[in-house]
């Protein structure tokens, strides 16, 4: 098997080692401080027994859904409960999933990982042993997705992950190029797509081609640290690694001094959101002002943006989904714009990218179950996941045509945070569509610092 990219640059194959065993994530950031009971939000509509009968006399498909509803990664899950509620009310799920000649009621059980890898493993095991789930859907960063996927793989339960770079998910779980997970699949994108999104933006801002790199000592940081050099060098850029720091670091003076001494005019990262906010405020105080900042894993959601204030203006990042993208639901035809507008109307909150990716998790599940001969046949359902090819809320996803089997690649767009013109203080605007020509340009790319 050959690692796939969309250009001639080979996809890097990091050596991760034990990336999750050391972590208790950002204890000082309040992980789990507002957890609901034991971290569960249970659907009381069904018994949740695999193959059991609901009150309607129909058989039941039980789907577990794990996301970081509390803790330092909670921004990723801002829209998750809204999406689950929307999916439950959709005719495709509320009227039951038809498999062959039989119709199955659907029970969705939501679990909070509390942004903690150990907790993520625990809730995955409980979903499997107590709720007898037929599939687990999981989202948002390797800290959550990887432990859940590993539990599912070991227990023979189909699992779909998203919002995690595929290298962090695949190599971070110990896979070697050429191997295939049997029960676990995912969709998102990886280093090649980050490069196709960020580098064209760098090229449009005159700079000295020296790139400050802020990569932590975790699964994402390792992937970025090992994956960026092969992308930078052919384009004439030189990376300046700030060092593998621990998650939760509070003083970045040494890193900032290094970036300043090397005269870095471009900045790229992959930290936890609270860590970047600390770094960026210290960078402003200490005079590190790169011409263009392109950030990954952070500033994806309005809550983190508001916390930085106007320091966020013209920081660029990736967008895997926006309401303006020309996509629609494969379940009921809802457009991306309608999904974003409905969320804002129902919650009063600004749209977030995870609306699309979480919605697509349930599209993927629906497609796999409807194509399986028996929704309780884990191997058959997993086989359908690994070979799935469909178009929905996040565009076209081909799980059989990605860089490794069972990985579907999304196409991100380059975006920048701009001063808001409506009810919200800042707006995310598409400024570069080099990696996704489907994405409509909404604003001009401008330097982060003049």
H-E order: EEHHEEHEHEHEHEHEHEHEHEHHHEEEEE
Count up the helices. 13
Domain module tally: 2
* Ends apart, CA distance between termini: 45 Å
Radius of gyration: 21 Å
Question: How much helix, percentage-wise, in residues?
Answer: 25-40%
Query: Tally of extended strands?
Result: 17
Shape: globular
CATH topology of the largest domain: Rossmann fold
User: Biggest β-sheet, characterized?
Assistant: 8 strands, mixed
> What is the top-level CATH class of the largest domain?
Alpha Beta
Strand content: 15-25%
Low-confidence stretches: 1-57
Q: In the CATH hierarchy, what is the architecture of the largest domain at level 2?
A: 3-Layer(aba) Sandwich
| SS-derived structural category | alpha/beta
| Mean of pLDDT | 88
The CATH H-level superfamily of the largest domain is Response regulator
Description:
The chain is an alpha/beta fold and 450 residues long. It folds into 2 domains: 27-189 and 323-409, Response regulator (Rossmann fold, 3-Layer(aba) Sandwich); 192-319 and 412-432, Response regulator (Rossmann fold), CATH 3.40.50.2300. It is 32% helix and 19% strand. The strands form 3 sheets. Strands 1, 2, 3, 4, 5, 6, 7 and 15 form an 8-stranded mixed β-sheet that branches. Strands 9-8-10-11-12-16-17 form a 7-stranded mixed β-sheet, with helices on both faces. A two-stranded antiparallel sheet has the order 13-14. Helix 10 links the parallel strand 11 (292-295) and strand 12 (316-319). The radius of gyration is 21 Å and the shape is globular. The chain starts with 39 loop residues before the first strand and ends in an 18-residue tail after the last strand.
